[in-house]
Write a structure and sequence with these properties.
311 residues, 39% helix, Inosine/uridine_hydrolase_dom, IUNH, Nucleoside hydrolase, Ribo_hydro-like, hydrolase
Length: 311
Amino acid sequence: MTKKVLIDCDPGVDDALALAVAHGSPALEVVGITTVAGNVGIERTTENALCLTELYGMDVPVARGASRPLLREPRAARHVHGESGLGNVVLPPATREPSGAHAVDFIVDSLAAAPGEISLVAVGPLTNIALALRKEPRIAEWAREFVIMGGSYTRGNVTPAAEFNVLADPEAAAAVFAAPWQTVMIGLDLTLQARVTGQVQERFSEFTRLDSKLLTPALDHYGRHHQYREKGPAIHDACAIAFAADPGLFSLVSARVDVETQGRFTSGMTVTDFTAPGEEHNALVAQHLDVDSFWDLVVDAFRRVEENLPE
């Protein structure tokens, strides 16, 4: 039986790969995509999401969301993902339009229509999710599960303390972790285990069209960032999708996670306390990945996407 997923994202190279994994996974049914400003601005993340759904042949609605954080000035990652957000990828302009609904309304309405059935997976800044909780707190009850790619229980990747998705809107992240659901935190400690090594790239070479149109031009640019040169780029967001598809690939530890919003040097830090009393725990924190099985899942999903790419 497939699991329904609603994906909130900011495409983004690793978002692009995450969407391919979601579309190609036989375990998942993507019911919608919502966009948020993050890696690039909202115009680009929305256009990228539309272009990617056309590339992959995904017949799902794309709803445009928040263009800026709740309180702060926008923060982007063009130096990592390129001006377009997709590295060296060049795709035709989208022929589809985004949904008429705002992402926040789309999230609320989707979960309200199918309580307990849809997994909400957020792989960008958490602005849309915080706004959806503000509009309708019951989404915390209606989501089948809530999974994020974000945070870290050790070190950050933008500052020593903070990971990008959380740092981009710490106030939103704080509200999301404070909501009455159990957040599955797929943070940097986990995602940095998912590196596109030379051996992995060799496995990608079987996907002739997908590789030439997306994988190689996206990863060649992405991999030039100084954090990835030695061990290969990490496809962070695909890990959250892989969790939705097969939680057994991950080891999780229950913890209390709070988000620092005030610290001069620690703003955006996901302060993770594994020793807090159990009744205070609000998250499951991913620690270890079955790397070989993860890449088997990704390659299998990419193979299905390749076989069904529109002409």
